[in-house]
Amino acid sequence: MSKQTTSLNDLIDVLEDSRDFYRDAAGDADHAQYKQLFERMAATKASIAGELKTKVAALGATPSDGSVGGSLRKGWGEMRAKLSKNSDVEYISQLEEFEDRIVHAFREAVNDSEHAEVRAIAQKYQPQVEQDHAQMRDLKHSLGRNG
User: Fold this and answer.
1) Number of domains in the chain
2) Cα-flanking dihedrals φ and ψ of residue 77, to 5°?
3) pLDDT in tens, 84-109
4) 5: CB partners within 8 A, 6+ apart
5) Relative to the CA of 68, which of 6, 17, 102, 126 has its CA 20 to 30 Å away?
6) Is position 59 within any domain?
7) Domain DUF2383 spans what residues (predicted)?
């Protein structure tokens, strides 16, 4: 696998991990507004990951489908949410941390990738990634979960 496809698969991993966690959170959400938000965020992650997978396949490599670390992190977040007095707030806190990972991965691809094509692809999606992160960060802070 080339460094180019490895870089794209790294982005796919964080998106797929996040998508899965958003889907699970939507299924467990207590409030309709959060369920809708989580479903929309999952769809956004799936859409971007789908386009990146198409690019990886076009380059002759096998697209990734998430990471083991992401699955473990998701499991930990789900357990914390289920044990919390307010699972929606705990999910929001954990999902915002996933958004941090996504933003970091896209910024790294834009700023540090050796491949112009990877940088261009990451730049294309970076505004949406930044917007999603800001929305979850602001929601987390509005609910008093600053840590």
Assistant:
1) 1
2) -65, -40
3) 566 788 889 889 999 999 999 999 99
4) 56, 59, 61
5) 126
6) yes
7) 5-111
Q: What percent of the chain has a predicted confidence (pLDDT) above 70?
A: 83
Tokens of 110: 């834009």
The answer for residues whose C-beta is within 8 angstroms of residue 140's C-beta and 6 or more apart is 92, 93, 96, 146
Q: How far is CA 120 from CA 10, 50, 51, 73, in A?
A: 15, 17, 13, 29
pLDDT, mean over the chain = 86
Residue type, 114: E
Q: Helical H runs in the chain?
A: 3-28, 32-58, 68-83, 87-112, 116-142
Residue 68 included in any domain:
yes
Express each pLDDT in 122-139 by its tens digit: 999 999 999 999 999 999
| Residue for token pair 């789908």 | 50
CATH code (residue 134) = 1.20.1260.10
What gap in Å lies between CA 105 and CA 112, rounded to an integer?
10
Residue 107 maps to a domain: yes
pLDDT for 71 beyond 70? no
Q: How big is the chain by its Cα radius of gyration, in Å?
A: 15
Confidence class for position 11, pLDDT limits 50, 70, 90 = very high
Question: Does residue 147 belong to any structural domain of this protein?
Answer: no
